[in-house]
Amino acid sequence: MDKTSIEQTSEFGDQSTSDVTVCLRSRDGMPELFYCHSSILKQKSGFFAEQLISDNTSPKNYIEVKCQGSEYDHYAKLLKLLYLSEDLILDSWDAVKTALGVLRASIALQCEGITNSCIQYLEAVPWEEKEEEEILKITPALGTAATALLARIRPVNENAAKNVFLSAIHFATTAESSFPLYADELKTSAQEQVEYMLVEDEDTPLVILDEDVRSEVRTGLARVFTRFEGELNTLNIFFDLSPQEAEERMLQCLSDIDWMCNILPKMEMMKDFISNWIGISAHMLAIIQADAYCSGLWAVKAKLIELAGKAFDAVGYGSVVLPAPSRLHFLKTWLPYMRKMKPILDSQSEGDDSFPHKMDTDQCQNIEGAIISLVLALPSNDQAEILGDWMKMAEKVKFPDLSEAFEVWCYRTKTAKRRLMVGLNGVGNPTVTL
After folding, report:
1. Are 284 and 236 in contact (CB under 8 A)?
2. pTM for this structure?
3. What is the 3-state secondary structure (H, E, C) of 179-202?
């Protein structure tokens, strides 16, 4: 009788036709009897086939299967599955947890068909972290049959990681209008993927050194700044139509710029950001400080201070190395804006307790510290220019407070004069230039 005929003529639990009783211990330790058929058991289970082969002439008609009480349900389900065709077995799975439990039982009872069905189901559905851990515990017992399961969790090669990173960077820096359906979700997902790879993925350090990857990042950075410049150039049009919408468009661009500012240090590419930021700064500030926006765009103005603070931090503490003229130009471009906006934002918050854009103490201290560090790294004459300008305004403008830089400059000036005098009074009266 062929396999299909056996399945059709034998019914699980039919005591009238059963010739083998299988005993399982339930959760409470009580024996539970299942009426089965030796033809089914021998054909589909190596374990039962061995048990049913007897050296004696009398066949065995009672088999006790040893299993823990917590495994009872899975063993009981397996016995029922022995009576189903392969297609019906595959359709019967409803949860990863169940499939894993039956898989353990199937391995123990050497049921190749059910084992393969479990693997096929598990390979096709998502797993939770705990379920993945259980799968990893089971796979050694599966041998080569576990290949399909392990393929999902095997570390990717460098080219695969590189391609994922390139795609994520592209989507993360592309305008939403290019992907109108689910645009925000797609961009957010791509940005999160990039952040994860930079922080958590062990293979990423090799990927981020790849020149193709760095080129795509630079291209994406240029796209973000170009899009922001476009918003600046059309700000007056959108602002006249809807100030709120105009501000939201600007903030979206600044959010992308901020995201780039956060990931580039992890790739040692912050210099590319600073170059783009300095390049657009004068144009940006000229537009934002126009009279038409003097009483609006507060979120944008505050965000610019935040981003400028990050740029000051990178340049001031030496993460990004720039020539002295570039550092001086950067400082002279943004220092007036900082001086102007801090008291304006403070006054807005004093008149409105719900105003969310006031600069807090930590932010002010961080920006001040970076500016002081930047000033002290300039040539002494440039320091004198910046500090002289600050002293003229010190009574009216309290931020940023450059007192520390002034004290250091005074000390250095006196020290330099002493060195000069020592040089002039020394043997040979050498020429000393400062």
Report:
1. no
2. 0.69
3. CCCCHHHHHHHHHHHHHHHHHCCC
